Amino acid sequence: MQVLPNATVGAEVRGVDLAHAGANEITGIKQAWYRHDVLVFRGQKLSDDDLLAFSRHFGTLDPPPNQGAGRKSPPGYPDVYVVSNVVDDYGEPIGALGDGEAAWHTDMSYIAWPPDASMLYSLEIPASGGDTSFCSMRVALKKLPRGLLERIKHLDIKHDGTYDSGGNLRKGVAASNDPASSPGTPHPS
Questions:
Q1: How far apart are CA 157 and CA 61, in angstroms?
Q2: Residues 44, 95, 46: CA angle, nearest 5 degrees
Q3: pLDDT(111) > 70
C-alpha cells in the first residue's frame, strides 16, 4: 500500500482493494486517515455490502440525514445514502439532495455528535466539473491571526440544519432564517 500526500490536506492511497482489505491494510488506512484527514482510493469496485463492510471498520454507522427529498437509499440498504444528479423515468431525482449541485457544506455538524467521517463512493464521474473539494479546519485554525483566535476561543458556533447542502428545506423542518431558533447544536470553537 502506498500513501501519496497532497500539499495541504489529504492523500491518495494506492495498491489496496477496499473490498478485500486485510487487517494490516485497514490499520495502515486508519493511520493515513488520522494523519491526512481525507483519503482518495481510485479505481475501486465495491458493492453496497463491500462499502458498508469497509465503512464499519471506522465505527458504528450513523443513519443518513433527512434531506429535502427525504432519505433515499437503495432497497435493503438504509445506511447507504444516494447523492445524484440523475432523475428517474418520472422526472424524480434519485438522490436525496435532488438533482442539482450541492453547496459548500460540512457533513452533519448540526447534530450534537457529528460523525468522524463520511465515505463517498462515486459510480460515475464527469470528464470535467463535478469537483468535490475539502478543507482542513486544523490548518485553518492554525493559520488564524492570534487576535482573532483569542476573540473566538470561548464562543460557540451553530450549523443551521434548516436546509440541506442542496439548498432544500429538510423534510419535517419549518423554514427559518433565524439561527437562534433553527435546528442545530452549538459547538465550541
A1: 25
A2: 15
A3: yes
